[in-house]
Amino acid sequence: MNENITIEISFNEKIERENQKFFFKHIWKKNFRELKKAVIYVIIFLVIGFFPLKDFDQSAMPYIFKYVGFLYIGYIFLLIYQYWVSKKKNYKLIEEYIEDFKANNNQMSYITLNDTSLEIRNTFHTFGSVWKKTSYQFVDQYLIIEIVKDRLNFVLTKQEFNNSDYDTLLHYLQKYSTKK
Among 69, 82, 121, 171, which one has the highest count of C-beta atoms within 10 angstroms of its own C-beta? Predict the structure, then answer.
């Protein structure tokens, strides 16, 4: 039995903006872990590099530790700069996407489910995937559906769906895809 179930999702500007901003923050949490590690490394290397130990400060080792510490400081500034540039660019793209959607007559998105695949489409895009290449995860109130490994994700919340459509989607995800 390969019957198609189509779920309609009405465009809601506020929810879409929230979902996209949440996903940006969710992705950058990984980079903030890197930032925390870099700060710890800076402290360790600079303390060792500037700590006066007998016979240690006459070798090249303190200079190597200082040099590595300053390299990590540069890495920290690079991560912070990259975050702010990405945030500005991403928020601009979110607003452009929302404006495009608002200008369009058809403000619906559709999720088509069957036993073999999942398809998500709207006026601008159509994305599909077989179930074995699809995964999902829950983060707070958000459902993140990943179609292309770490590259193509859809963020949805229960409030976007009508009636029992959210439960139907969850049933198919649980039955056919993998949970992260």
Answer: 69
Tell me the C-alpha distance between 140 and 179, whole Å.
Answer: 15
pLDDT tens track for 150-162: 678 899 999 999 8
Tokens representing residue 70 in the block:
């300053």
What integer pLDDT is reported at residue 172 of this predicted model? 92
Q: Give how far the C-alpha of residue 128 lies from the chain's centroid of Cα atoms, to the nearest Å.
A: 19
d(CA 99, CA 85): 21
- What tokens were used for 170? 């969850």
Give 137's strand partners. Answer: 144
- Residues in a beta bridge with 177: none
| This prediction's pTM | 0.80
Q: If residue 146 lies in a helix (H) or strand (E), which one and from where to where?
A: strand 142-148
Six-digit token pair at 54? 């007998």
CA distance 20 to 144: 11
The Cβ-side half-sphere exposure at 17, using a 13 Å CA radius, reads 10
